[in-house]
Design a protein that fits this description.
Shape: globular
Largest sheet: 6 strands, mixed
Strand order of the largest sheet: 1-2-3-4-6-9
Number of helices: 19
Strand content: 15-25%
Number of strands: 26
Length: 736
Amino acid sequence: MKNLTTLLLCCAVATLSAQQMPIYLDASQPIEKRIEDALSQMTLEEKVAMCHAQSKFSSPGVPRLGIPENWMTDGPHGIRPEVLWDEWIQAGWTNDKCTAFPALTCLAATWNPALSKEYGKAIGEEARYRNKNVLLGPGVNIYRTPLNGRNFEYMGEDPYLASKMVVPYVQGVQSNGVAACVKHYALNNQEINRHTVNVVIDDRALYEIYLPAFKAAVQEGKAWSIMGAYNKYKDQWACQNQYLLQDILRKEWNFDGAVISDWGGVNNTDGAALNGLDMEFGTWTDGMTQNRADAYDHYFLAKPFLNKLKSGEIKEEILNQKVRNILRLIFRTNMAANRPYGSFASPQHFAIARKIGQEGIVLLKNDKNLLPIDTQKMKTIAVIGENAIKMMTVGGGSSSLKAIHEILPLDGLKNRIGNTAKVIYARGYASNDYKDQDGLSANDITDKRSPQELLDEALSVAKQADIVIFIGGLNKHDGQDCEGNDRKEYNLPYGQDAVIEALAKANKNLAVVLISGNAMAMPWVHKVPAIVQDWYLGSEAGNSLADVLLGDVNPSGKLPFTFPVRLEDNAAAALGEYPGDKDVAYNEGILVGYRYADTKGVKPLFPFGHGLSYTTFKYGKLTADKKTTNGNITFSITIQNTGKRDGAEVVQLYLHDEEASVLRPYKELKGFEKVFLKAGETKTVTFHITKQDLSFFDADQHDWVAEKGTFKALVGTSSGDIKSTVDFILKLKLLL
């Protein structure tokens, strides 16, 4: 398959005899000219065939013309192993073990756009090496509720942060001649009832909260494809939605790429044909209602579409526009000039994965500087918890991976500590509810002992140790962080809260490490001196965690979403509807995450943007320049590393509108910069704000509006820890 494109091109050229090479095969010609030339030579049947799948992850090209197939791959965190042509189970290849990169919640927690570009470039290289021309990711659906089972695949609750992180990821992927397929567009904020629920939301919330990251991916990242969602909006499925795909994506944002359905996201021919979908995949996922030799020919955009075209019920120009978008995708990827070859599971990719994990891990609490662990003082280290020995690359839905290796947390710690201290392990709790996925199996760690037996062993081990590291949290089983379902509860599963409470009594030096893609309740938070938010870190998980816990790396991660104390403190639970049945009303509107907590005075467990360091930072006084006409203004602040360790701090700029005529959140993130400082070093951070940053979306005008008046800029280490503020006045110049 690796040389399929070259072979097809050679065959096509060989049949031309002495004729001049067709324009569409000449990569030196403008893409739009090549598209029209290819389109003019295609039959109606060939054009329709390009609009639907021919296998689980591919769609036809036009062999007669040397136009290659499209080959898609999950997912946002690693390249999915090969599956059989018509089934989800593994094809049995031995050379498709990939690099598992950290989940996108971890990437967002780095607050480092440069690292996001490295991530995108590396995973794009892996897709290119496997000859995939569309990577089904990244995901940028907003974190609305901590119960959403798929939050771990997304970039948090804030549209500004997600926008700044998704653009370089897309650019990195596409530098390999592989299309990023940004998903799931749009309003896919829950897994329960995802195929049927109709989202009811006002236009202001839609444009201010749920669309900006998609818009940035399209307009700034220049994404070549986008994936529709399963849910409905305005009673139309997202994969065939006039408002989302035509009015907004095409007309407002001028998107010129291909719109691809989620697998099984198409529901009828007319909607898919007329409302902006280009490529249909996975209808019923087994070839309509049953397996059959010609199953793909019966997709909604296959024979039913062809019949409507032949009868004149649907105009051929509608088909032509779809094919133009698909050809544009192909010419940018499989038929692009100077397309790199990529690389797969390389040492460089593992190093990038490890670095992302290092920068994304968040130190939530560190009383009395319990961390980092000093192995010269702490001679016996107890590691307790199932997640210390549990594989996390397998499971979770479409992001499940066959990784070439996965360093488990216990192994990472043992390898790093070596003989300088004794490491003893106890299970503490057991899940025992794992099921293999698509022929992939995780390590078998089944433990049939009773909860009391597991706890007794853990307490015995804890009492022997100088320090206890509890490694728990969630996992990627159904009903937790997993596609297709949402979490069953906000508390930790498998009785972990009771285990942590008991360990805190048994040993005062307790560090709790939580692996998850979601927030969770912590009823024991005041009894534990150190808490670390870990994520699904992929191949280098254990190494990244050991690097931070042992102090080889100074933690610099910041939370990309708020941790509520209780589920009732989340805006969707307090004001909106979830999970809904037919309709789900987003009554909370723009008050999502910290916007709700700050505006309503609800104190979180840990605020958005929170994250500690092993060093300390001193903020200077925030200053603003005097040129505020029409919204252009520059803010500056100094920051000094006042500790003894080199480290990084994420300086965050929020804006507050003091004279708004409409409800606005108390503050909104409008700038951030990750600053690396040596011990004692001082740097100046500068933020440039424009009128757009001061605007809100006016649904009546269907436009962004900035009102003159007094604003406040706030700079801090999180939304809950503001270090300096400055007032400024926006004066709007009348344009005649």
